[in-house]
Specification:
CATH superfamily of the largest domain: Response regulator
CATH architecture of the largest domain: 3-Layer(aba) Sandwich
Order of helices and strands: EHHHHEHEHEHEEHEHEHEHEHEHEE
Number of strands: 13
Shape: elongated
CATH class of the largest domain: Alpha Beta
CATH topology of the largest domain: Rossmann fold
Number of domains: 3
Radius of gyration: 26 Å
């Protein structure tokens, strides 16, 4: 089951907020005996002074305004009730009363150690959504040795309610995680892992249509010899991008030339100079354009082309995917696809929160739309 979401859509799959902060808010009777303060004299300013906050912040928190962080609203309403402030609206009290009675959920995020700056936005998005929904969040970074030895993190043994994977792990390691029987959402996976017995939800960024459009953009400039580089065995998202490349060739009656495509598996998955150099060497003639599976590969391709005395885009047009910030500072002119990493992280968290509430429903593949960024690297000289 596949859902598509555009840039303006984020499904808010909220679960009840936890009782960790509000051990006493389940009854919220504003019992003045706790503090000994005369209820007639308790004002917003008194609450603000007790918490070291501004009067305006406290007033907005007591009105349950979204402009105040959830944690701050919790703190303000709890303190107001503790001090005997009586003007908290019944609607707010009822909302927090119900949210305070639900058991806190613990979510664990697993990632490989070699993740880059690109993943910061995804992690921040996950954290924001999980915290906003009152869950505990743990991060564990898996070493290559632990993955090979099928060793799960020590804190995985108990107290975990759901799992988010933001790296594509081996089928064997994924199998060890699935043995725990926990609700799980993956950011991408291989097609082999996502079989008919799909045991987990998947969230990926759209790749077929965006790369089809980028390849068409090259073709419409008169370019006919177009290569592609990326390990399509690694994950579905890269294979989707390859499908988009092939679709553009087909609709323009262009055939895929021998030697200009590198899609087979390599140990480094074309993320090193040797793999890229090997690809260029086996090309009988350097293509007029090279569609790269992502920005990291595009950067290596541009570097290798320049070492051969070729200019981008004058001699060879190059495109990427991901809009990686750490690479854009060096290669700001690369045509790419922006995936909105924070939004993607929030969508991962939303999907897991939804799954925690609805474990009986069919598993889903959620495709999040991305934005094409046409830049200088794809403007081929005619």
């Amino acid at each position: 089951m596949t859902n598509n979401f555009d840039a303006g859509q984020v499904i808010l799959c909220k679960i009840h907020l936890h009782k960790m902060i509000y051990k006493n808010i389940s009854f919220l009777t504003c019992n003045i005996q706790k503090s000994g303060v005369d209820m007639k004299k308790v004002t917003i300013q008194d609450v603000a002074r007790a918490l070291g906050l501004s009067r305006n912040t406290v007033a907005r928190a007591l009105n349950n305004s979204d402009t105040v962080a959830y944690e701050t609203r919790y703190m303000v309403i709890e303190k107001a009730c503790e001090m005997g402030y009586l003007k908290v609206s019944p609607a707010v009290l009822n909302e927090f009363r119900s949210k305070g009675t639900t058991e806190t959920k613990t979510i664990i995020v697993l990632a490989r150690r070699e993740i880059s700056i690109f993943w910061n936005g995804i992690i921040m998005g996950i954290s924001d959504e999980i915290n906003q929904n009152g869950c505990r969040l743990r991060f564990d970074f898996i070493s290559e040795e632990d993955e090979n030895r099928l060793v799960l993190p020590a804190d995985f043994k108990e107290g975990v309610d759901g799992v988010i994977l933001i790296s594509v792990f081996s089928e064997q390691y994924l199998g060890e995680i699935l043995k725990k029987g926990l609700p799980m959402v993956c950011l991408d996976c291989s097609e082999e892992q996502q079989d008919e017995k799909q045991q987990f939800d998947v969230v990926i960024s759209e790749g077929v249509e965006s790369i089809r459009k980028i390849t068409n953009h090259l073709i419409h400039q008169g370019i006919k010899r177009i290569g592609f580089i990326g390990d399509i065995t690694y994950c579905r998202s890269i294979k989707d991008r390859y499908r988009g490349y092939l679709a553009a060739l087909a609709e323009n009656n262009l055939s895929q030339e021998d030697g200009v495509v590198a899609v087979e598996h390599t140990y480094w998955r074309y993320y090193n100079d040797a793999d890229v150099e090997g690809y260029l060497k086996r090309c009988k003639e350097i293509p007029e354009a090279i569609v790269c599976a992502n920005d990291a590969i595009a950067f290596l391709v541009i570097k290798a082309l320049r070492e051969r005395g070729l200019s981008v885009p004058q001699d060879v047009a190059v495109t990427g995917y991901d809009n990686q910030e750490e690479l854009s500072s060096m290669e700001a002119f690369v045509t790419t696809v922006g995936v909105g990493t924070t939004r993607l992280g929030r969508r991962l968290a939303c999907q897991l929160l939804f799954r925690l509430q609805h474990p009986e429903l069919p598993r889903e593949t959620v495709v999040v739309d991305a934005d094409i960024l046409y830049r200088e690297s794809s403007r081929h000289s005619m």
